[in-house]
Amino acid sequence: MGDLFEYWVGDDDIGDPYHQTICDALLACYHAGIRIYWMHGNRDFLVGSAFADRCGLQLLPDHQILQTGKNSLLLTHGDAECTGDLPYMAFRQQVRQPQWQQQFLSQPLEKRREIARQMRQQSQQKQANAMALGDVDDAAIRTLVEKHGAQIMIHGHTHRPAMHQYAEFSRYVLPDWDCDHAASPRGGWLALLSDGSLQAYDVHGAATQLPLHPHAA
């Protein structure tokens, strides 16, 4: 569901050693018979068909519906619903324009890398100076869920793993991953079980419960 990379400046950067490691791992899953689907995040929205073909995965639109039993599950990265962060929304609208992307991708690879590094540093500084990370907007969430007629919504982006219970639907937030610090690795995923229920797992693969958000509606 996006943000597998810190940034992605184009599919011609697939030869980067770290990127190559990730692609090899995805391809190994594919050869093991695992079907992989990719949804763009705000950091890797430039992932394209060449990357998908190289890794044996299928690209998904940002809003994807899964039907399981009586429930409809709505999957989304989540950044488009952070409507309260006006500077970010303006930036997002700009970089998702085909003309902007074409102009950016036409620049030399190293120049694109440097631009991405500078943008990432600015983003990290902004987060460090903020009292709290931006969160999704409840009104935007309700509108999106109502539009798709979903009973369950799953997203990432905010790095605040939780289960939010509303009157009409439930919203699950996935954690981010960080296994570079052995003392306190973090991560996790949701599994859709055969009976249609969801089970959360932590970074070590142990079944766990996502905390109920204290301000859930």
TrEMBL record:
Reaction catalysed by this enzyme: UDP-2-N,3-O-bis[(3R)-3-hydroxytetradecanoyl]-alpha-D-glucosamine + H2O = 2-N,3-O-bis[(3R)-3-hydroxytetradecanoyl]-alpha-D-glucosaminyl 1-phosphate + UMP + 2 H(+)
Positions of substrate binding: 42-43, 85, 123, 126, 129, 157
Positions of Mn(2+) 1 binding: 3, 159
Residue numbers binding Mn(2+) 2: 3, 42, 77, 157
UniProt cofactor(s): Mn(2+)
Location relative to the cell: Cell inner membrane
Pathway given in the UniProt record: Glycolipid biosynthesis; lipid IV(A) biosynthesis; lipid IV(A) from (3R)-3-hydroxytetradecanoyl-[acyl-carrier-protein] and UDP-N-acetyl-alpha-D-glucosamine: step 4/6
EC number per UniProt: 3.6.1.54
Molecular function in Gene Ontology: hydrolase activity
Cofactor note: Binds 2 Mn(2+) ions per subunit in a binuclear metal center.
Sorted UniProt keywords: Cell inner membrane, Cell membrane, Hydrolase, Lipid A biosynthesis, Lipid biosynthesis, Lipid metabolism, Manganese, Membrane, Metal-binding
Domain of life: Bacteria
Gene3D superfamilies given in the database record: 3.60.21.10
Major place of residence: membrane
Membrane topology, from the record: Peripheral membrane protein
Purpose: Hydrolyzes the pyrophosphate bond of UDP-2,3-diacylglucosamine to yield 2,3-diacylglucosamine 1-phosphate (lipid X) and UMP by catalyzing the attack of water at the alpha-P atom. Involved in the biosynthesis of lipid A, a phosphorylated glycolipid that anchors the lipopolysaccharide to the outer membrane of the cell.
Name this polypeptide is given: UDP-2,3-diacylglucosamine hydrolase
